[in-house]
Amino acid sequence: REREIVEARVVVTSPGRNFVTLKLVTRSGVYGLGDATLNGRELAVASYLQDHVVPNLIGRDAGRIEDTWQFLHRGAYWRRGPVTMTAIAAVDVALWDILGKMAGLPLYRLLGGRSREGALVYGHANGRDIGEASDAVGGFLEQGFLAVRAQCGVPGVKKAYGISSGKAYEPAESELPAETVWNTPRYLETAPKLFERLRADHGSQVELLHDVHHRLSPIEAARLARDLEPYRLFWLEDATPAENQQAFELIRQHSVTALAVGEVFNSIWDCKHLIERQLIDYIRTTIVHGGGISHVRRLADFAALYQVRTGFHGATDLSPVTMGAALHFDTWVPNFGIQEYMFHSEETDAVFPHDYALREGRLHVGDTPGHGVDLDEALAAKYPYAPKQLPVARLEDGSMWDW
Ligand code: GCO
Ligand code: MG
């Protein structure tokens, strides 16, 4: 009875950007937190939770994590999809947090204990041109980063994905989507030159990554992967949209550049073929959009059979609650690869106090019971929701493209 859920609250707050958080409270007063943020579509998940999930949670045993997951997944009848799986993830992570607090154990110990000291992370370096991007990579190396993702502006393309305009990169910047214009040939010329320069400036040791952000066709992606081979990328990410998982066969036929995919996936079924056929090297689906710890754990175990490693999404639109849960997972999971890490703003960090810390290019979790991330509700209330959407992209003739 002490484990009975007596209260469930959906907190929407915007400390610099929008976040949706679920707070579950048990009769004994222990609470758990789960992130439910789906960038640009936040209120759809907030409503899914508030209107359709919360009434099912009151009176439930917080210890029945698996049963609750199955209830919400099978019981919805309408399975999968980003909104549903993000809502289920929020409940799942909050329940794991409660379990940890009740047991007095950090989450990684509940999962099976430590496999490594810290989780290798990669930071985001970008610049308006190749020179600026190279300087930005240098800045990360000075901070002790061992792995850096690099993006640079493309001549003739205004506001390309991943390039900040001075302050921290935050793509969902306006109430209606910003319109950008994309040019594939110019990009395919520029990207190999960027990595040629980065290897010349920074040597062979640093791990370099790059995100194509779904903007190439399969054969274009194959060409880029081949052109980048001399620079030994840690990975090339989202080289082509992956709804058709077979598309990656074409890239594999032409290149040995390591491939990562999956930040927009929400279940194991989205990557089953990619993994079984060993068409990718890293799976990026993370806890918040992939049904929580209970589902992503299955995905990671399946991936391990095929030597595919994790490389969790970690952009700033995933809240510190997801980062904390993901880092516990990274600390445990045997087939860990790397963790994406963009710094949250000071405002965000103040609303979500946490005990993870960066040391020498790796993030380390603390030993606080649960996932170690809290929510300052009084402070959160000072940052009301502000509708923001992600940009869109068009080709030069005006037709819609992938941003
Ligand atoms: C990444 C991602 C992000 C996404 C963002 C969308 O690799 O970090 O591609 O930059 O665009 O999370 O909300
Ligand atoms: Mg990405």
UniProtKB/TrEMBL annotation:
Mandelate racemase/muconate lactonizing enzyme C-terminal domain sequence ranges: 130-258
InterPro entries according to UniProt: D-mannonate_dehydratase-like (IPR034589), DgoD-like (IPR034593), Enolase-like_C_sf (IPR036849), Enolase-like_N (IPR029017), Enolase_C-like (IPR029065), Mandel_Rmase/mucon_lact_enz_CS (IPR018110), Mandelate_racemase_C (IPR013342), Mandelate_racemase_N_dom (IPR013341)
Pfam family, one: MR_MLE_N
PANTHER family named among the record's database cross-references: D-GALACTONATE DEHYDRATASE-RELATED, STARVATION-SENSING PROTEIN RSPA
Stated name of the protein: D-galactonate dehydratase family protein
UniProt organism field: Luteimonas endophytica
